[in-house]
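Work Package 3 (structural annotation) set out to generate three-dimensional models for the target panel prioritized at the project kickoff. During this period the team completed the workflow that converts sequence records into discrete structure tokens, so that structures can be stored uniformly alongside our sequence database. As a representative example, we reproduce one entry of 363 residues exactly as it appears in the project archive.
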Amino acid sequence: MSGPAHPDVAPLVRARDLQRHFPVGGGLFRAPTGAIRAVDGVSLDIARGETLALVGESGSGKTTTGRLILHLDVPTGGTVHFDGTDLASLAPAPLRAMRRRMQLVFQDPFGSLNPRMTIGDTVKEGLLIHRLAEGAEADRRTRALLEEVGLRADWANRYPHEFSGGQRQRVGIARALSVGPDFVVLDEPVSALDVSVQAQVINLLMDLQKQRGLTYLFIAHDLSVVEHVADRVAVMYLGRIVELAPRDAIFAEPLHPYAQALRSAVPVADPTVRARRIVLAGEPPSPADPPTGCPFHPRCHHPARDESCARLVPPLEEKAPAHLVACHKQPPTTITWEAQQVAGATRQPERHLPVLALDARTD
């Protein structure tokens, strides 16, 4: 179980033992024959104003976890509290009102926009549904939102097919911001974009977080992106969190064997540095038939791996200050002064990714 990023402050989001199992087989009048364990016991806290990155390979359950936290999907088990309120306890009307404070930016900027609606109507829709503005005031706020994300206000009457991928994602961000949320789930927001545009969108998200005091759950599989945006990183494998720590600790010295493999796959820009690459054996197991014990043990490269790894599920426990790991063979470490500094470090919000000299209105 993850502790809050700041123990003396109640977290904005608190998830405990989240599970989502999708039934397999069965049919009319027949019971299911099994279940896909997409999320299998996830617990985490997200502090106000922080960015928690959720990373892992495809199929690890990242997107499903984000949907469960937003209560877009009903969990099989577990709870989600948002600002102290259990979302499962809310009736439809109060839940709808709560959704103003929780928004989602989708991965696909092409499929997430209605091609029959202008981008102005797309951004304005949330204002109208929640009765935040109407008429001329809604139009004014829509134009202001477009300008805030780097688009021209007079483009409000254009349709999504007239824009590039980066511009469409900016529309999606404006739509999410239109209702004034406190918390935004960013589901791989730059993975479908050209590399030349990714840095611009990331910098925009960081600026918006600073200006609006937003809290982010940043879902990604690219650790090189996560390194620039996250305060803390949760590493997910086969529906479970296997490591959770401050960003700098994850990148300096990951402790879980799976996190070590992910870290080793990040390219090193310096050609004089020869990084050790960890190549995992085999393929990820099916969530419909997960292995017993530690979910990672069939592919684990830890030298102390033994039969107990196949029998016992390791708990997510603190192995170093603010550094939680789910591994039987990873003992608590003796933290040096330098490592303590890394574990307590926070992201500098002013640091931006380098970008090409492109205008967002022409990307």
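The first strand starts at residue 13 and ends at 24.
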